[in-house]
Amino acid sequence: MTIVSDSLPTSTLLDLKVGNEISDNQHSGIIKSIKISETDEFLMFLFQLEHKNIIVKKLKQIC
C-alpha cells in the first residue's frame, strides 16, 4: 500500500496504476481510475477508489 500526500514525489504519483492500493491516512482502497489535471501552478491527481476519491495537488517547481 502506498500512502499518498502532497509531499510524495511526483514521479511516485505518476507510477501509480489502476489496481494499486493507496491510502491518504483517512481513506484507503484500490485505485479504480486515475485522472491527472495540469494548470500553470500545480498538477492535480484524482484517484477514484471504490467508494471515495483521493485528491493530491502538487505545486509545480518554478525555477
Outline the structure in words.
The protein is mainly beta and 63 residues long. It contains one helix and six strands; from the N terminus they run E-H-E-E-E-E-E. The protein has a three-stranded mixed β-sheet, with no helix packed on it. A three-stranded antiparallel β-sheet has the order 4-5-6, with no helix packed on it. Helix 1 links the parallel strand 1 and strand 2. The mean pLDDT is 94.
Show unreliable segments: none
Largest beta-sheet characterization: 3 strands, mixed
Category from helices, strands and their pairing:
mainly beta
State the strand order across the main sheet: 1-2-3
Shape: elongated
Q: Provide the residue-averaged pLDDT.
A: 94
- Count of helical regions: 1
CA radius of gyration is 11 Å
SSE diagram, text form:
Layout: E1 2-3, H1 10-15, E2 21-23, E3 28-30, E4 33-38, E5 42-48, E6 53-59
Parallel strand pairs: 1-2
Antiparallel strand pairs: 2-3, 4-5, 5-6
Short description:
This protein is mostly beta strands and 63 residues long. The protein has one helix at 10-15, and strands spanning 2-3, 21-23, 28-30, 33-38, 42-48, 53-59.
Name the descriptors.
1 helix; three-stranded mixed β-sheet; 6 strands; about 60 residues; mainly beta; elongated
